[in-house]
Model the fold of this input.
Amino acid sequence: QVQLVESGGGLVQAGGSLRLSCAASGRTFGTYAMGWFRQAPGKEREFVAGINWGGVRTYYVDSVKGRFTISRDNAKNTVYLQMNSLEPEDTAVYYCAAETNPAGTGRNPAYWGQGTQVTVSA
Done:
């Protein structure tokens, strides 16, 4: 019903920046809360950031607060994750996800993208 495709990952030095994008097709995510998750090797998948349908409410894990910014453009069916001041600990596969509750935090998604690798060198 909803297909999500992430892009923008890559290799960056510590202190650098990346912007991840998530493009949705099929059913628009305009009525969905959206989230970004990440999974480092050998670790559990972790919620990173979320945004409600209206784009007014945002949520972040403490470790990225002040460095990462989630935003969305519903007209383009796209959600973004701007990542600044990147640290080696941010290295992970980052996943875009859609939650069916438009007022949700993005923590309980029903649909997932394929993931994009972010590697931060020391």
Summary: The first strand starts at residue 2 and ends at 7. The mean pLDDT is 94. The two ends are 40 Å apart (CA to CA).
